[in-house]
Amino acid sequence: MRIVFIGPPGAGKGTQAERLVETYHMAHLSTGDMLRAARDAKTEVGQKAEQYMSAGELVPDEIIVAIIAERLRQDDCRKGYLLDGFPRTITQAEALDKMLAEQDTPLDVVLELKVPEEELFRRLAGRSRADDTPEVIRQRLVAYREQTEPLLEYYGRCRLLKSIDGLGTVEEIFDRARAVLDKLN
Ligand code: AMP
Q1: Could you tell me where the DSSP H helices lie in 7-43?
Q2: How far is the CA of 42 from the centre of ligand 1 (A)?
Q3: How buried is 143 (Cβ within 10 angstroms: 0-12 exposed, 13-18 middle, 19+ buried)?
Q4: For ligand 1, what atom is nearest to the CA of residue 33?
Q5: Separation CA 61–CA 90 (nearest Å)
Q6: Among residues 32, 61, 54, which one has the least CA distance to residue 139?
Q7: Residue with CA at minimum distance from ligand 1 atom 19
Q8: Residue among 45, 48, 58, 148 to mutate when testing ligand 1 (max atoms within 8 A of CB)
Q9: pTM summary value
């Protein structure tokens, strides 16, 4: 299966993504993890990305698209993958469509984890990551609303979008995700 997993910061996407890739034997492609690894390794891309990440802004599309294009060429992606945190803009979604069309490997589903904004702010404020100051949190939510939310309509139009409620226990949310994915098989 090839899945795009969309959800605002603080929705619990990372936790669910880990369980999903384990259960369905997919590669886990998290652009946030890739960027943090690049930043910690102090690569050129990592240093450039850091300026945006620390401000809660999105890293420029061309950097992200290049990272994903290279990652999708790796062998483990043949068994299927879950894209976690990518695409986050319409430009990225269009670049992904183009890459997948060239390889004749369409997406199976775009899964949205829905959580109300007040709840996100509450959860994010309770985390202790260095980039989680109130101002950065606010900026990350704004970036989601303005740049990523339009993807819901984009994927809704091609009937790939399935949304699930992101409130509840980890187990409850996982069961909702599984119900969607099991229907595709
Ligand atoms: P995440 O762990 O997915 O919340 O990502 C952490 C940070 O990495 C984001 O706040 C962005 O600055 C950056 N980032 C991750 N994925 C993307 C993407 N697809 N496009 C642009 N920036 C991204």
Answers
A1: 13-24, 31-40
A2: 17
A3: buried
A4: 2
A5: 10
A6: 54
A7: 86
A8: 58
A9: 0.95
Half-sphere exposure of 184 (CA within 13 A, CB side): 16
Nearest CA to ligand 1 atom 14: 32
Whether residue 38 has its Cβ less than 6 Å from ligand 1? no
Tokens of 121: 């702010």
pLDDT by position in tens, the chain (length 185) = 999 999 999 899 999 999 999 999 999 999 999 999 999 999 999 999 999 999 999 999 999 999 999 999 999 999 999 999 999 999 999 999 999 999 999 999 999 999 998 899 888 877 766 667 888 889 999 999 999 999 999 999 999 999 999 999 999 999 999 999 999 96
* β-sheet with 27-30: strand ranges across: 27-30, 81-84, 2-6, 109-114, 161-165
Within 10 angstroms of residue 46's Cβ, the number of other Cβ atoms is 17
State the CB neighbour count (10 A cutoff) for residue 35.
Answer: 22
Ligand 1: distance of its center to the CA of 88 in Å?
A: 8
For ligand 1, say whether the CB of 53 is within 6 Å of any of its atoms. yes
For the Cβ of 82 lying below 6 angstroms from any atom of ligand 1, the answer is no
Burial of 101 (0-12, 13-18, 19+ CB in 10 A): exposed
Q: Which atom of ligand 1 is nearest to the CA of 30?
A: 3
